[in-house]
Design a protein that fits this description.
The chain has 13 helices and no strands. By secondary structure, it is mostly helical.
Length: about 280
């Protein structure tokens, strides 16, 4: 299953979110909360939607396309460093020893991916099995993903402080992202690529969009009631879950070299220290 433009996956996954969240708002009686924000709240949440769901998700899909899910997740976990620093500098959140050591471990995890491996350990195996390896486009995409995802928690936190519920905030962010994405997909070439996309790929992107919507809603709830320096790093458990799920579902196409596994473990160890 090959996709020319991985950004199309971002558009499809974002498009399924607003109807789903709107249905949740109607069922939960939360529609009134959409109008409860100040103009600053709308601005922050709209900016969060563009940063996270347009730029971040598009870059993330491109990183996965080049590096595979395992390495892309570990490299983009640097977003937690940006979240922690922004929470400390702008919101005045407290620095502790555990936070400092945990942050160092989170940074060390991605650095391990660049540790040179013997040919017997990686080159021959990856070339024969067509498993992903570090490439410049993939590294750039993953690092950009980290930047976009790292800035988003601050924008969400500031937006939700201006009134309204996490569900309403999620709807505003996703709706803004869908409008921006829609404007970039007006051209006939983009529309044609979506129409002619393999049905299997379309279903996978839609399914990922539904799961991501639920995950983002829970993330907004966490950011509403918890400090960024605590809520943000919890997302660093993603690499560990990805490595486990990739081994179960996709081990033939993903990289499981020693430095990849150790990198994921170090990131999660950093999370444990930050959250302790």
């Amino acid at each position: 299953m090959r996709i020319k433009d991985a950004g199309l996956g971002g558009y499809i996954s974002v498009s399924v979110a607003p109807p789903l969240i709107l249905a949740m708002a109607v069922i939960g009686g939360e529609l009134h909360s959409i109008t409860a924000f100040t103009w600053k709240g709308y601005a922050y949440l709209a900016a969060a939607g563009i940063t996270n769901f347009v730029f971040g998700r598009s870059a993330g899909y491109r990183a996965i396309q080049h590096l595979g899910a395992n390495m892309a997740a570990i490299l983009s976990s640097l977003n937690l460093i940006y979240s922690i620093l922004l929470g400390i500098v702008i919101l005045g959140e407290r620095v502790t020893r555990d936070l400092a050591v945990g942050t160092a471990l989170i940074m060390l995890g991605p650095a391990l991916l660049f540790w040179p491996q013997r040919d017997d350990d990686c080159s021959r195996e990856d070339e024969l099995s067509k498993k992903p390896r570090l490439t410049r486009p993939g590294i750039i995409a993953a690092l950009l993903t980290g930047v976009f995802y790292g800035v988003t928690p601050l924008l969400v936190k500031l937006g939700l402080q201006e009134g309204g519920s996490p569900l309403a905030g999620t709807l505003i962010s996703y709706s803004t992202a869908m409008l921006v994405f829609g404007a970039t997909m007006i051209g006939p070439e983009k529309r044609g690529e979506i129409i002619n996309m393999e049905r299997t790929a379309l279903l996978w992107f839609a399914a990922s969009g539904i799961l991501a919507t639920v995950a983002q809603l829970l993330r907004y709830v966490a950011l509403k009631w918890s400090p960024i320096s605590v809520a943000g790093p919890l997302l660093a458990t993603i690499p560990l879950f990805l490595v486990l799920l990739s081994f179960i579902l996709n081990r033939r196409l993903e990289s499981f070299r020693l430095n990849v596994i150790l990198g994921a473990i170090l990131v999660v160890m950093g999370v444990v220290l930050v959250y302790r």
